[in-house]
């Protein structure tokens, strides 16, 4: 398990941002998913440019004071779940 | 406050080069010359986006039969709608596909009937399989979501494993395996389409194995045959709760089949705004909420999950659209479903004896 440090996560084919600024959604062929708080912070960084390490580093900066190891674990779990649902590719 | 719909199903035409024996279109097809004009659809899409609708499903008939499909797609995309094309692929050249992708199409769902050309063409009532295979390759040249849809029934379930392997080679992002739902033309052909219990049992295992094998690569969604289920499906996510369907002539319906229910009046988008129809039309209000429910639904704790099942099926099988969906094991009329399953012959028809067995869906009249 785990995500390669150098991979560049991005929204999968057919997935795109929708909804409003207050209530953002990720749209995909069979529906939509609400994205909130830390999930939104993680997914907003998945632009296909940043590597997984870049994303974790940026989250650790944004959530300064939280356990950096925990942040990495949470980001890993979140992205793995979305990968399984074919919402994120890496 | 009543939430607005999440998705709009636009049946932009009932014309179709295929004649599938399980087509979900109504028996009374909308005539070609009754179809909404381009500008009507553009207004409907803009209104839908304004109401907060997220998804647009461009379907038919065969939506490619409309020469303005590129224009409709581009407008819906500009309105911010997630645009899905539900298609047989007939009428889609490599060039036209590129134009649709450039117009902002987000997702294409291509139907297949079987893995074998002869069998597939027999189900579709027209030569279409070879083109679909070629088209699947063209679709993968673009960065666009690609679903392969396979409707399953007694005539193709014995090949399911082989068909799934065939579909895997088309490299879709998603496979939808949908057991036939018995409305429209499928109900006419029900005796030849209803799977046997043994076929269903095997199909569940085959689909579960495919899900495990494709995990993280291809998403598998399945629609179960509700005649064999213990409880009914939450049809359309509940009447007038999530979805709105506009037929080729502009009539707004809560679902594909609602036209079969007697006494319904469907308002037309030519005369009313989408918002007015959603909020106020008698058709959308008729089975909203719970006040129409009879027992056992009325006091059933599942009523907020399945909303009493499907109103059209209740009418088609019991003659009462407000009855509990008879596929429910708790329904007082459940025996009609059990009798149907007991009566369905277990044989598989051969393609050579098709004429007397199949009722193919025809094309709508011009006028």
Kindly list the characteristics that best describe this protein.
heterodimer, A: 90 residues, alpha+beta, three-stranded antiparallel sheet, two-stranded antiparallel ribbon, B: 367 residues, alpha/beta, nine-stranded mixed sheet, 15 helices, globular
Could you explain how this protein is built, in words?
Chain A has helices at residues 37-44, 52-62, 68-84; strands at residues 10-11, 16-19, 24-28, 31-34, 88-89. Chain A has 90 residues and is an alpha+beta fold. In chain A, the strands form 2 sheets. A 3-stranded antiparallel sheet of chain A has the order 2-3-4, with no helix packed on it. Chain A has a two-stranded antiparallel ribbon with strand order 1-5. In chain A, a hairpin with a 4-residue loop joins β2 (16-19) and β3. With 367 residues, chain B is α/β, with parallel strands linked by helices. Chain B has a 9-stranded mixed sheet, covered by helices on one side. The longest helix of chain B has 18 residues, at 197-214. The mean pLDDT of chain B is 94. The interface between A and B is medium-sized, with 18 and 20 residues.
């Amino acid at each position: 398990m785990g995500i390669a440090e150098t991979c560049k996560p991005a929204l999968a084919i057919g997935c795109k941002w929708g909804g409003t600024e207050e209530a953002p959604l990720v749209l995909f062929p069979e529906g939509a998913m609400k994205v909130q708080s830390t999930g939104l912070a993680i997914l907003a960084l998945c632009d296909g440019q940043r590597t997984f390490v870049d994303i974790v580093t940026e989250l650790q900066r944004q959530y300064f004071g939280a356990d950096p190891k925990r942040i990495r674990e949470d980001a890993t779990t979140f992205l793995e779940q979305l990968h399984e649902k074919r919402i994120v590719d890496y | 406050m009543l939430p607005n719909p999440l998705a709009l199903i636009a049946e932009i035409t009932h014309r179709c080069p295929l004649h599938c024996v399980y087509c979900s279109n109504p028996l009374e097809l909308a005539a070609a010359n009754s179809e909404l004009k381009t500008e009507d659809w553009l207004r409907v899409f803009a209104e839908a986006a304004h109401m907060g609708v997220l998804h647009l499903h461009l379907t038919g008939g065969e939506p490619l039969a409309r020469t303005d499909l590129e224009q409709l797609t581009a407008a819906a995309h500009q309105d911010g709608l997630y645009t899905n094309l539900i298609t047989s692929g007939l009428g889609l050249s490599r060039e036209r596909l590129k134009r649709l992708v450039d117009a902002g199409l987000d997702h294409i769902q291509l139907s297949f009937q079987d893995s074998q050309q002869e069998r597939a063409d027999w189900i579709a009532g027209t030569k279409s399989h070879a083109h679909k295979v070629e088209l699947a390759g063209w679709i993968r040249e673009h960065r666009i979501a690609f679903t392969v849809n396979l409707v399953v029934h007694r005539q193709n379930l014995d090949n399911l494993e082989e068909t799934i392997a065939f579909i895997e080679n088309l490299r879709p992002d998603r496979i939808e395996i949908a057991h036939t739902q018995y409305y429209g033309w499928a109900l006419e052909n029900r005796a030849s389409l209803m799977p046997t219990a043994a076929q269903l049992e095997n199909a569940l295992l085959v689909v579960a194995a495919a899900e495990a094998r494709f995990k993280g690569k291809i998403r598998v969604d399945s629609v179960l045959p509700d005649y064999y289920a213990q409880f009914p499906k939450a049809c359309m996510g509940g009447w007038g709760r999530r979805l709105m369907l506009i037929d080729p002539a502009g009539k707004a319906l809560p679902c594909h089949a609602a036209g079969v229910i007697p006494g319904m009046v469907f308002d037309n988008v030519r005369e009313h705004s989408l918002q007015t129809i959603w909020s106020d039309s008698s058709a959308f209000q008729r089975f909203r909420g719970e006040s129409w429910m009879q027992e056992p639904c009325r006091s059933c704790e599942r009523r907020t999950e399945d909303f009493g099942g499907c109103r059209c099926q209740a009418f088609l099988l019991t003659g009462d659209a407000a009855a509990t969906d008879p596929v429910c094991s708790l329904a007082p009329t459940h025996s009609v479903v059990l009798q149907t399953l007991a009566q369905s012959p277990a044989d598989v028809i051969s393609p050579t004896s098709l004429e007397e067995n199949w009722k193919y869906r025809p094309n709508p009249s011009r006028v």
